[in-house]
Amino acid sequence: MELTVLLDNPCAAMPLGEWTDALRTAFNSRLRLASNKCISGYTDPQDAGYGWLAKNLGLKDAATLAALLASRGTVKPEFSYYEVSPCHWALARDHAILTPVQALSTQQAEDLIATANAAIRADSTSAAGLMQDEYGWSLQTLFDLPGPSFVSALKNPTQLAYSDDPAGQQARRLLNLIQMAWHEHPVNEARQLQGQPAINALWLHGGLVPELPPHPIFDCIMDTQHRARLLAKALHQPLCSSLNPQARHILLWLDAGRDSLSFSGHTAKDQLKLQIEQLSAIVQALPVGTKVSLLNCQANQLQRIESEIIQPGWYWRLRDTFLPSRDVVECLVMTSMLAA
To answer: In angstroms, rounded to a whole number, what is the distance separating the alpha carbons of residues 46 and 297?
Structure first.
């Protein structure tokens, strides 16, 4: 049995010291580094977390995984599918400054989407319209425009220009249309009265939906809500609400840090706490010797830490006395600081 834990941008949901302390409590001394050379890195210009998953699922890149998740498991061949992040877009001299949305209620989101869709229908653009569900916003279009994810765009200066090909022109027209529709919208006027930035842009991450991989690497996807449910639905795999002792490779995706909006009533911080509690229960139930891969993802950087389940006792206390070494949480702190 092997467990892969994808810590997806946890610093966006909780300060470094808080989530690493929570993980130390969750591991309860049962997790041990596999060796002195147990850390490896991965970089992806689009998105390291999505890119790593895409690579291991047999997909092309991070954008294709985003498209797969945005399709919600139902694909029309002529459309491209995008995860959508509403945001505030401000212009600097040579790049755009993006600000994630905060404190947007479900009703406000519905009002903005209804206004945008009315403008889309009236203009007959190459988009089928925005949609909102429990997982967030999504969009279907007739253009394929892959690019970096929202978390990657937030970390790195965003280039202003779209390509001059038809896809870039269609995307520019669509986003300009939505920007005009939301100008002086009642939701934005209320936000500005409260000192919050107006929502004047959408960030799209996705494209054409790929063919499904023939043999998924994970035979158990733990139900941590949000993207884990979308991934299981897209791959036509069952979700595991509890540890399956027959599973060969388990995925536990802690994705709360990726969400700029929360439609479940929980903040991203509260959601991450719940996911860490779920991880704690799994770690305590795993048999000794189980391999555990911790993937610490921060935007474009991912560090993989190899560890294994041990039974804490006198042997390990004695060994640490004479052969001290960094523990798993110390490695997570170090890799997070390097990626910052």
So the answer is: 13
